[in-house]
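F.,

This is the one I mentioned.
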């Protein structure tokens, strides 16, 4: 969005500087259009610097591909207009691996196969609870975001 604001500002500057080449009757209109473009560019630039992090998440600002050192807690924040804020959950998540076809996050059999004492293969259904909030309490979310995929 900041790129759009910069484009609008450049258009306003170009229109304002080309007023001397325009006839007298169009100068006032060109000035009003340039002022309007400037106001819209300013509003877009201000709104591109505001981000909202939803409840149960933490925001990780990324500027030009580099993860910043600070975490954004829930709520509204002013950030670098060029920053992309990636939202990561800090809620406890449940992941189920099951032999049942429609159970768990992955449709199909994603259970773990293990050998019994008889040498027979047994599918094991496993549910794992993942809690990332201790990392947030220690301020390590940004460091974790550097090493994990944020897709």
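My design for it:
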């Amino acid at each position: 969005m900041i790129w759009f604001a910069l484009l609008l500002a450049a258009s306003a500057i170009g229109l304002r500087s080309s007023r001397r080449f325009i006839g007298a009757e169009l100068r006032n209109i060109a000035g009003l259009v340039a002022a309007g473009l400037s106001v819209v560019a300013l509003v877009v630039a201000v709104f591109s610097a505001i981000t909202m992090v939803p409840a149960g998440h933490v925001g990780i600002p990324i500027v030009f591909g580099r993860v910043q050192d600070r975490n954004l807690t829930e709520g509204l924040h002013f950030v670098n207009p060029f920053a992309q804020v990636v939202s990561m959950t800090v809620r406890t998540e449940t992941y189920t691996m099951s032999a049942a076809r429609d159970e768990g996050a992955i449709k199909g059999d994603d259970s773990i196969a293990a050998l019994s004492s008889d040498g027979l293969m047994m599918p094991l259904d496993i549910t794992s609870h993942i809690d990332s909030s201790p990392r947030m309490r220690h301020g390590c979310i940004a460091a974790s975001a550097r090493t994990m995929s944020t897709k």
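DSSP finds four helices and nine strands in the chain.

Talk soon.
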